[in-house]
Design goal:
Blueprint (H helix, E strand, L loop, with lengths): L4 E9 L6 E4 L9 E8 L7 E6 L6 E8 L4 E7 L3 E4 L6 E8 L8 E8 L9 E8 L8 E5 L9 E8 L1
Antiparallel strand pairs: 1-12, 2-11, 3-8, 3-12, 4-7, 4-11, 5-6, 5-10, 8-9, 9-10
């Protein structure tokens, strides 16, 4: 079986607070999947950072689960695909893997694993499974806050995975 390789495509480090991060001109050939590694904090607690393929805010849905060390929960949402939901202004890190991003014969799926790892942030860990109900190839995406902003120094690195 061939071994998958990660190819760096782009890195964005915020120089100032922002409510949106955009990756554009993503290649739709040469890579089977995309992986986004991120390290981000927000200027307030209670902020969702939402994943929007091709800037589409309306065709997504997700299920998620979380744990805090002292409790846990699970649920689902329509139209919202978060990569993290902050309980504090701690630094959160994680990965999003978008499968078959260039395929035009299927809906797109993504898995996200993220968490804070900070005692001040409640040691939250998250797992999300997303479905984007579109057969359009993903050539760009946005990360958009539900409120507040992402802080300066937040970093997002995008990789392509060759099959």
């Amino acid at each position: 079986m061939p071994q998958a390789t990660y190819t760096p495509l782009a890195t964005i480090t915020l120089g100032s607070a922002a409510s949106t991060v955009t990756f554009s001109n993503i290649p739709t050939t040469g890579y089977r999947d995309l992986v986004l590694a991120f390290q981000v904090s927000t200027t307030a607690a209670g902020v969702g950072i939402r994943f929007r393929p091709n800037s589409d805010a309306g065709n997504g849905s997700s299920v998620y689960m979380y744990g805090t060390g002292s409790g846990s929960g699970a649920s689902g949402t329509a139209s919202v695909m978060d990569i993290i939901y902050t309980d504090s202004t701690s630094v959160y890190s994680g990965t999003l893997q978008l499968f078959d991003h260039a395929q035009t014969d299927k809906h797109k799926t993504a898995l996200v694993r993220s968490g804070s790892g900070s005692s001040a942030g409640g040691n939250f860990v998250w797992a999300f499974a997303h479905r984007w109900a579109s057969t359009t190839a993903v050539s760009s995406f946005q990360l958009v806050t539900s409120s507040s902003t992402m802080t300066a120094g937040s970093t997002f690195s995008l990789y392509g995975i060759a099959g």
